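With this grant's support, we have settled on a layout for protein records. One resulting record is reproduced below.
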Amino acid sequence: MKAKALTLNNNPSSSFSNFSTRIYVLILGIIAGLAGMAHGIFEISQGNKPTEDILVRIGAYTIISNYLLTGVISVVISFLILVWIIGFIHKNNGPTIFMLLLTILFFVGGGIAPIIGLLITWAVATQINKPLAWWKKILPENLRNQFAKRWLAFLITGILFLLIGIGIWLIFTPPGENYRITTVDYICWIFLGLGFLFQILTIISGFARDIEKQHSISQVTQ
């Protein structure tokens, strides 16, 4: 029975798929994907005119020297990323195709910050159907239990900080040719920094929670 449990644990289609890890990938991926779409919408709003350089004004790169075109493509790719995150990233080769999509997004004006979030999403997504043996080895059982209990609190707090930071960026720091860094920017960065810190805690606690779940299932099947 023990061998059977181990086999199922490595099967991407089994019920042992890491639930906490997948939920985190879903939430962070959607937020980052929508942020990439916001970049594309801003680029569309600039109209059918050439970009000044490969670095457009809102912290994004593009190899397409036209605001309207790069914005439309960015929105389309962001939409495909959202669809992929919701329905396919947990499947075989799901993370690989996801990486291809976010690479394209980077080069068509999807923004730098959203790409960082999507890269984290990709890295965590590669562990959705894994036994997490390395994490089980480096996390002592007592510490693992403590992290597992705090997963939901870390998740909510981290997402809240990220959303506040993104909200400040969208509402109070609109991009423009005469843009200057103000106190509001520092407040925005503080919230985003705290959000990033809690992302790390959420990832680790999610792995710990999934390991505990795997352990409970293996005991039942023995």
